[in-house]
Amino acid sequence: MGADKELHHIQLSFRAVMDAMARPGRVYGLPATQGKKASRFGLEGPLETLVKMFIDQAVSFCVVAPDPAGIQDAIVAETHARTAGQADAAFVVVPHGCDKELAGQAIVQASAGSFLSPEAGATVLLGCERLAFLTEREGAEAGDASLYWVSVEGPGVRDSHVFGIDCFDWVWARKRRGDEFPCGIEIILVDRQGQVAAIPRSSFLSVLAMEGGAEGEEASWLM
Fold first, then answer.
1. Which of 93, 111, 104, 101 is CA-nearest to residue 42?
2. What kind of fold does domain 3-129+175-202 have according to CATH?
């Protein structure tokens, strides 16, 4: 992909992410790339697009992985951003397939900002295997436990938005934080197919369906 085409792709992707932030819990698709290209950072393409979108020399970041040095060095070389610890980084990058315990710890430890500077709260870019629209739940067979369904309420949502995701450990990790608004973190979820969903710090989450649980059984909490 040439430099101009890549810039245009990132601009279109940015619009999709902003739509996701404005409508928490709605799933949006990043524009498809033309052909396949080697990853510069060792990340899945959609997550790498988010990294290029948000991380530059003005911000700090960290990568959550057993051995993050290679990915971090590649990002620094291209963006000139600075690395920081998980508790201090402005952006926390959690690659697809990351160990669940490491990912949970990163979400728990990410900076919440302060009441004087809530904008200093971290943004977590979290890779997952699959995100799904509500219509996929309506058409799924009973007992299908391949996805967990999460309902989102709060600012930007009239009633509730529901989406499916292959994992929910990040939800429990977010619950453990106990942030008091306006402090907190933003989470942007992205799957391997380039679908994104956003969870701002002001959102209220309910897990509607859990593996091994009955349909309609809820575990709710204020985030």
1. 93
2. Rossmann fold (3.40.50)
